[in-house]
Design a protein that fits this description.
Strand content: 35-45%
CATH architecture of the largest domain: 2-Layer Sandwich
CATH superfamily of the largest domain: Threonyl-trna Synthetase, Chain A, domain 2
Largest sheet: 7 strands, antiparallel
Number of helices: 3
CATH class of the largest domain: Alpha Beta
Distance between the termini: 39 Å
Helix content: 10-25%
Radius of gyration: 19 Å
Order of helices and strands: EEEEEEEEEHEEHEHEEEE
Number of domains: 2
Number of strands: 16
CATH topology of the largest domain: Threonyl-tRNA Synthetase, Chain A, domain 2
Strand order of the largest sheet: 6-5-9-2-3-8-7
């Protein structure tokens, strides 16, 4: 298994690691600061460098469910370290921080729209959630409420509960289409104080004020009771 350093601290930018596997497109390590694509959040990009001076780009990261390892993708023909080598890993921090801000913005949007979430995704500078709503919501009211929650500068904290504890509190799960990952014995909750509390494995800012001003980019009908709200940085 790859130790996921970013789960406890999303602000870590780099780490040293041991290469545990190599494929034709990338490599795996024993621990990492790279977030693997999942939960609607893209995988991190960045750089690696070996003790021997071999370096290259990491263009993506994803979790291999069978092995439990995180594959750091270098692409066909890209330089790769060897198994057993020590490497230094560094994420593209500016990109990651934008993704953190937008992911946290989606939690503000969740709090602003009192309806079940049917899907969602995050990209660099933009994010969207689909809500189970019979009628389109008021665009300006949503934008005003989300920005109000951001300006409140609510602190974020992490909590861990068991599968059984989550089963006893089903209202914590806002997303209808994606259930929290189970099997590890514990589930992480992201808590923006006084605003939002729900299971989430993504990376987030320490306070909602770090998100900055946002705007509603669009509201679209995606089915009889499915309203897609897309947010972007203002």
């Amino acid at each position: 298994m790859t130790t996921e350093l970013f789960r406890e601290d999303g602000y870590l930018r780099q780490c040293d690691a041991l290469v545990t596997g190599v494929t034709s497109t990338g490599f795996a390590v024993d621990r990492t600061v790279f977030y693997p694509a999942g939960g609607g959040q893209p995988g991190d990009t960045g750089r690696f460098e070996t003790a021997g001076g071999v370096s290259g780009d990491i263009i993506d990261c994803y979790h291999d469910r069978e092995s439990g390892l995180h594959l750091h993708v270098t692409g066909e023909g890209g330089p790769r370290p060897d198994v057993g080598e020590r490497v230094s890993l560094a994420i593209d921090w500016e990109r990651r921080y934008r993704l953190m801000r937008m992911h946290s913005c989606m939690h503000m949007l969740c709090a602003a729209v009192p309806a079940p979430v049917t899907g969602g995704s995050i990209a660099d500078g933009v994010g969207r959630l689909d809500f189970d709503l019979p009628d389109p919501p008021d665009r300006q009211a949503i934008e005003d409420r989300v920005n109000e929650l951001i300006r409140a500068d609510a602190p974020m904290s992490l909590q861990w509960i068991t599968d059984a504890e989550l089963d006893s509190q089903p209202d914590l799960v806002r997303t209808m289409s994606v259930q929290p990952p189970r099997g590890s014995g514990r589930i992480r909750l992201v808590h923006f104080e006084g605003v939002d509390l729900q299971p989430c494995g993504g990376t987030h800012v320490a306070r909602s004020g770090e998100i900055g001003p946002v705007r509603v980019q669009s509201i679209k009908n995606k089915g009889r009771q499915n309203r897609r709200i897309t947010m972007a940085f203002a």
